[in-house]
Write a structure and sequence with these properties.
This protein is mainly beta. Strands 1-2-3-4-5-6-9-10-11-12-13-14 form a twelve-stranded antiparallel barrel.
């Protein structure tokens, strides 16, 4: 029976310390506390991720197959005084923003043409050992604190996992519209479960060099989350080369909930650009989309892996108030019976300032 794990007190303390990384993880130099330039415009973001929108050949519709996100991030220091005080109490000095958005994520097994996990005359089919169908529809609110060298994020996600996430309607509706085969097993998706998640993270921006007008920097980060959807701790680093690197703190993926306040940017030149590449490592304590509904004994589930790694590479451009980016993500497998080695997907994001 998949249940929420009871963490030992030492592990709870570890997760809490990661969530408060902005005050206890890595001491920030005094120069990093300088106030960034004011930014009175909000940022609207539309982002899509798909295993078919990839620079690499991929089997369509397997595992993490689709993500959609719409998000708004405020300008600097426009928060009501009580909310700004909460952000400063968590992260200390810095300019304040708030970020609000809605996101949907769809997960499917590798075999999408099996209609039932129990075939006639057989005890099991491959669906029993494959990732369950699942969809999540989440609302996110993040408080963001910026200095010249750091971006810190703390917030919550609230929503639903199950048929209420509208994964079947979106996926099979799109397949019908383009004349593609519908996925057959959605009637056996994970059942409705309310989601409440607390998350946080910090990204450091560390300049490395400038050669002939080309800048180099690195973006180490740490993040964590705890709730009835996921429990994890994550660390990573991104290396960038380009011009106008101090315009933002990198580009997020939809699943990177601990640092998705990185939508906010302020271009420091008429045309800013960068190439990036990096890695992330994640220690996973719990994942309901793999381990099944928390309170249901008959929920389909697979055995998660506790260690998951990712490689990111891509390009971002900023011009005329827009930011456009593409990321290619390679991910190690998330459960023990997964197939095909590294899983990959593409992430396309467009942001505009108003």
């Amino acid at each position: 029976m998949p249940v929420m794990p009871k963490l030992p007190s030492a592990r709870r303390m570890t997760i809490a310390s990661i969530l408060l990384a902005g005050t206890t993880f890595f001491q920030t130099p005094a120069t990093a506390r300088a106030t960034p330039a004011a930014d009175n415009k909000g940022t609207w973001t539309l982002q899509g991720e798909n295993d078919a929108v990839s620079t690499l050949k991929s089997t369509s519709d397997q595992y993490y197959t689709s993500g959609l996100r719409v998000n708004w991030t405020s300008g600097t220091d426009t928060l009501p005084t009580p909310i700004a005080a909460i952000s400063k109490a968590i992260w200390g000095p810095g300019v304040q923003r708030i970020s609000m958005g809605v996101q949907q994520m769809i997960f499917t097994p590798r075999n999408t043409q099996t209609s039932s996990p129990w075939a006639p005359g057989q005890q099991q089919t491959s669906l029993i050992r494959d990732r369950p169908y699942a969809s999540l529809l989440l609302g996110t609110i993040n408080l963001i604190s910026d200095t010249d060298r750091t971006r810190s994020v703390f917030g919550i996600q609230v929503g639903i996992m199950g048929p209420g996430g509208l994964g079947r309607q979106l996926q099979n509706g799109f397949h019908s519209a383009i004349g593609d085969t519908k996925n057959q097993g959605w009637s056996h998706q994970l059942q409705n479960q309310p989601i409440f998640q607390v998350q946080g993270g910090r990204t450091w921006r560390i300049p490395l060099a400038e050669v002939a007008g080309i800048e180099f920097d690195t973006l180490p980060s740490a993040a964590a989350a705890i709730g009835d959807y996921q429990i994890y701790g994550r660390i990573g680093d991104i290396f960038r080369i380009g011009q106008g690197l101090n315009s933002d703190f990198g580009t997020p993926t939809i699943q990177a909930s601990g640092t998705d306040g990185t939508d906010a940017y302020k271009a420091t030149r008429a045309f800013a650009w960068y190439l990036f590449a990096g890695v992330e490592g994640e220690a996973v304590g719990y994942d309901a989309s793999l381990q099944g509904n928390t309170m249901r004994s008959n929920s389909l589930h697979v055995n998660k892996k506790w260690d998951v790694g990712e490689i990111h590479a891509g390009l971002a451009l900023m011009f005329y108030g827009l930011r456009v980016s593409y990321s290619q993500v390679w991910q190690t497998q998330q459960f023990t019976t997964a197939k095909d080695g590294l899983f990959n997907y593409g992430s396309l994001m467009v942001s505009a300032k108003f």
